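Quick log. Single chain, no ligands specified.
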Amino acid sequence: MTVDPATALPDVPALPPEPRKGLVALLVFDGLLCAILSVMFLGLYIGSIPFPITILLAAVINLLLVMAVNSETGSLRAAMLPLGAWLLGFLVCLAVGPGGDQLVMADWRILMLPVAALAPAGGYLFSARIKAIMQTTRPPAPQL
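-> predicted structure:
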């Protein structure tokens, strides 16, 4: 099939695809679920030694969730949504349930969890924002 150059459309750059809102909502829900599961399994022991592997898992999962939302939407503001959901889930787990039940224990692990879970993703967001600022203030390097 041949295309007549007189009737062909000019090369228009394609618009970026619309972010899939269902996928973004699922990733934000995963942040909430990550918080609840990391608090529930924070008290794991191997023998008599505490084994808080969920601290490391929460850090890695939150970083991956933020990176996924950022790549889907292209917005750093939207990329913070899984962290907000994680923080909301963590605060809900801190609350005392009916009958005085509590998911968290007064331990060093509960203090370490929010720091370790939020710091890598926050560092990623910070570096991405600095990179975006630097690209807008510095002209691009000439191509050789």
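The radius of gyration is 22 Å.
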